[in-house]
## 1
Amino acid sequence: MIEADQLTKRFDGFTAVDELTITVNRGELLALLGPNGAGKTTTVRMLSAILQPTLGTARINGYDVVQEADQVRRLIGMLTEQPGLYSRSNGIEYLLFFGRLYGMSDDEIQRRGHHLFERFGMPENAAFRRLGEYSKGMRQKVGIIRAMLHSPAVLLLDEPTSAMDPHSAKLVRDAILELRDDKRSIIVCTHNLAEAELLADNIAIINHGRIIAQDDPVTLKRELLGRRRFEIQLDRSPDGLASELDDLVTVEEVELQTIRYVTDNPVLTNPQVVRRLDGLGLGVVSLHELSATLEDVYLNIVAGNAEPSSIDGQPTTNGQSLPVLESTV
Amino acid sequence: MNMAPISRPNTFNRYDLRMALLITKREVRDSFRDWRIIIPIVILTLVFPALATFTARVLFNFTAQYGAGLVSDRLVPFLLLIVGFFPMSFSLVIALETFVGEKERKSLEPLLSTPLTNSQLYVGKVLAALIPPMITSYLGITVYLIGLFVAANWAIPTELFIQILLLSTLQGVIMVAAAVIVSSQTTSVRAANLLASFIIVPIALLLQLEAIVLFWGNSQGLWWLILALTVTAVIFIRMGIKIFNREELLGQDIDTLRVSWTMRQFRDRIFARDVDGRYPGPFHWYRDNFTLIPKLGLPSGTLLISLVGAIVLGFALSSQYPLPEEIQSTLSGADIAKNTSNLQFMFSRLPISIFMQNIRVIILAAFLGIITFGVTDILIFMLPWLIVGFLGGQLAISGENPLIFLLSAIVPHAIFELPALLLASAAALHWHASILARPENGSIGENWVNLAADFCRLFISLVIPLLLIAAFVEAYVTPRVILLVYGG
């Protein structure tokens, strides 16, 4: 279990992480989303007891990252943004080195190492080849294998599928989901929004060191994108008749035979819209909701549509309250 | 609030050593797979000792023609020292990139996320940097000595052999320990290499000193050198363990000098800006400066011990190097009184000169201390007291009571001057040595800037006024006391 409370890190006056509060229970996966320099790596470094927080606390399975750093490091498996391998060692030597640091026996390392090599679809002789000869994707996989080698209770993975082909990425995602189902607590830092949506039970969007939105993907989309958008296809061009809908919905766009509008209460307004159009002699071919993606949410918040506000300590977007900080992940 | 981590027992047990050796083993294995390391090792182990053997044989033959065997006897061991040193110099290259190189290759962070303790990491890295060059060095020495025995039938005296072996090893340890400190405190291999000159230059000077002692044939001198190098090595290793930590290794990624941040930090500290961003009034600021004094306990204690040591050393040196008889005879109370009386007109014009001289010394020491990590702060502080001790000793030899001299010629103005100099030197030492220890809060850089500001605060608020008073007392009061005591 990962618990961070008001975690803050300052470097010589620069605040890299600002009062970050998260909880990741056993068997849960939190995706940490944010642009470069948002504070994701610093957060992971604090959680892995590499950096000490300036303020706040963090606990891994109950162990304090400052007071009980040794125990914390035993419990975590960490994949850094770049795997950073020893290019003159071969695969198995690399795993033997790290496994021994975690107190594993050589037999155990060999057995588990070969199993993981197989699990991640590594070529048969890869374990005995120099790491310097590995492709980018293979290097990334070895990094993940190292992080998983000692069966850690907590996994902190920074961009786990970067540089991987789609098949390898799926293997890695499946392995991560297996670990989650095996009651591990996992944090994945990623820029890959589709991956986050696919893997995460909860998503925290971080920018300028602060969590500006945090919830499950469905709620995030609902809460942060606000009013729902719909698109109606007509049998002919409305020719200025779209304004007849103004008292029911907010028409955003009229394009050839298409009208796009937003509404707060589609259950009530959509049937009325259809009836009104019919009354105007416009035949409705189709009506569907324009689905919001996590990318919309992310861009809405991070790319400037939403400015985090400090009013009442609650960051907001477009004037709406965001489900932040207090959310239990 | 952030809390300091619970400290582990301050010991390095067998388990720690086993973990450290895991790092050493991996790094040594990787080193021996690198042709850029293997080729110089082969050359330095075989080719260079063979060349040195040839040179030694030519030297033996040449000096024998002129009956100057003593010259070759003294120079051949120096060649042995060089044969041992050259491979050892490689340890510097390996050690310099040991942390920062890994950081650049991005392989450091996975290592830091393992359960290794800071000490295990540090010791493992130091040994990894030391072992390959040490093996090469010993092999080179062996090849050279076998070559000399076979070619010139020359066998090295056992004591000299042990001394050269120890000197080579200690030089390696010092270079590695210093380089690991540099490597752990810089953010790029380039920066580490630039800073390496702070290691190479003193080691080059040390080699020259060793050459002189060897040529001099002073065996005892070599043992003293070995002792000094052992102490230096222990200090460096201890310092390395103390300041080495994960935070410094990964906390900063950029080497950029942030001038505006530094200036702001310095300004805020010097004007005692509080957490709410307010600056105190002049009275509160002045009063606040006194709260800095208790923090100077350790440096003040060190300086006071140095002061006593300097006086004792000066006194001891006076008997070893007594002044010539004609000068000695002028060190009587009557002469002191006469000279003081004759020079009294000059003293009255001196206070500003005395004051300015003290200010110059403090400013010079402050700048020198930056590059010597505070060593010159101690030495400069000791110097006048060494002279006082020496003069006291000379007075004792000429039959005068040195205590009376001290009380009449030094104490009147020293009452003000000593606290001023002690305060300035202690603040400077605290500031300069801060780079060698990890601060409780903030980064080493932040702490360094803060302590520089503290030094300036004390200098402006307390040292300058005390030195002004001392200068006037020295110009107007001390001469009168001397005349009163010695009768003029």
## 2
Amino acid sequence: MKIKIKRESKFQQYEVDLENATLLEVLNHIKTTQDASLTFASGCRSSVCGSCAMRVNGREVLACSYKLQDGDEITPLKNLPIIKDLVVNMDKAYSFNKLSKAWLNPTEEKVAISQNDEKLNEIQSDCILCGSCYSACPVYTLNPDFKGPFSLTRVFKYISDKRETDEKEKIDAIQTNGIWDCTLCNECTMVCPQDISSKADIEKLRMKSSIYGYIDPNFASFGGGLSF
Amino acid sequence: MQKNILIIGAGGAGLSCALSAHEAGANVKVITKEYPTRSQTCMAQGGINASFGNIKEDSVKSHITNTLKSAHSLADEKMVEFLCKKAVDTVQWLDKIGVCFSRTQDSKIAQRTLGGTSAPRACYAQDYTGLKILHTLYDRCLSKNIEILNERFLLELVCNNDEITGAKILNIRTGEVELHNASAVIIATGGYARIYDNHSTNSKASTGDGIAAAFKIGAKLSNMEFIQFHPTALKNSAILISESARGAGGYLLNSKGKRFVDELLPRDKVARAIDKQIKNKEDVFLDIRHLGEKFINEELPQERKLAKLYENIDPINDLIPIKPVAHYTMGGIDVDENSQTNIKGLFAVGECANHHIHGANRLGGNSLLELIVFGREVGKFAVKEAKEIDQKIEILDDIKLNENPEINFYEIKKELGNLFYSNVGITRDENSLNEALKKVQNYISKLPEMGIYDNSKVYNTNKIEFLEFTNTLLLAEVIIKSAIYRQESRGAHFRIDFQEEQQIFEKDTLVTKDGIV
């Protein structure tokens, strides 16, 4: 089986004799037997640590849960600085969690969470921060400061949590370079290994923002014409 | 001048510690060789024990009794009592900061029964308990603006007059060696089950780096021979198939299609029964076909997905090929009730430490609890003890490694894993252990002939994997010597040549650089 891996500016081809193997198993095989300099990140092998996200033929996958096909082309995630081969630097992407204030402001009061309450953000709390959505998002070619799919999903997660005491703080934080920059193209949903739809979460955050008096700035720019 | 607390490791223990040290007023820096959310903690599925009694009556006393029974007289009763008493408060704190625990119909935290417990005690968040706890702690650290340095590998701990002064860290991204000074260093680097290489459920990162570094500067290690094997991992990939598959009524079958053990016995007993079948040339399978497609899809969706992916079978129609593999390491850096090691200013917490909680066998649901309870305690204590210093980082010369190796360490790493699985595994005896010791000592003597093939500076994973391998090799010798010394069977340590517990071994195996104490 042949596999092409993007290294520096060009593709390098490797030949492996492994049947029915995951991409991660193949990468490990190459590293330990053919080319120790091949660089990629991995951890749990069972799709919960989010280390091994990369692209196969242009599509984001977790290397540990993708079965390699002959002729596959492997490239690193997009929209992120490449450190080496298939390893990207996640620091800036993760910093959007902080800028979006994606955390809970707890209350001292006892809040009862029902099974229904729990379902409100169960899937959002399945996020493994693998960065697939970030890579697939077309907004980054225009706006590198877009707070992005996983951070906005995380904001939705905390806003929909009954225990949150400062919803407005988060709504305020995601107005600029946030929810209104999304084009609702749904690419993030298509590539999420955990079946999370950041696009849907962003739509819900837009509705929530309107309750706080925010309006779509793209729409608002036409507003001036109405005041005679 | 400030109290500078350096925490190495950013899993459940490291982040809990960071939060409490920050709250106690210290300047906190967390270093991880990955990113926090990639830590081993994310793999914990089962739950975190606390005797709320939300499902059925339960008590702190029962929690203590169950923990001590599983520990086979090697746990410290006072420490176990402390852990169990703190459990309810600890889970309430996690709930308060936003962990999405599953709920009961009357809006309480849901609890389930894990092996060896008298009540449904493990609070869980679907099959993602560890993941959701870890991510919530991480978000909380962001809210407190705690400094976290990603992708930095611990090389050495630095001491002056038997007191810790900092740590040498390899910045994986730049290849530079940094010396970080600190008033106190807390090791929270996780366990060492990856010594078994592909015979372990653990993340590839569980290579005992912090334990090896502490050992090298004279820290005492204890009970390193106690390694828990999980009965059911996928045969080819060692991916965990959760205990809930057996809990729900799954059978264990051999090649003849016969059941051979009560599937609900404790982990060590089931693992030994399976091991015996495998040693008699039988293949062993987990059979959940009779549970039905609907049940499997609802309750065991991860298991179905993983079996399809790694074994190419569908558990709805097929048997799942399994084997027992290394899952959790009970031993570690020996610490007292304040998580203090025998070196001033050096603390250890989490799986890398031996807090004398698990003894000879860990109870399911107690490991997540240990991380959070002792993580929060050590944060406070270390700050209280710490001196004020000026924080600084120095850049040191690069480490020198053999760049023309004659032996491929990746091959030895694999051999070491196979050797440990066969000779220092579910069962051991004097011959198997002596043979393993001889081989490991031979590998150690050949270390100068091993090295790295990639001599680049930036993000050199070949170098990191070699350094991790040398850490496991160092610990391998300690584990085998401890296992040879303990001429009895107790909990997870099973000697074919000494099958009973012996009163004289009702004590910890303590090891220093000079050997067994």
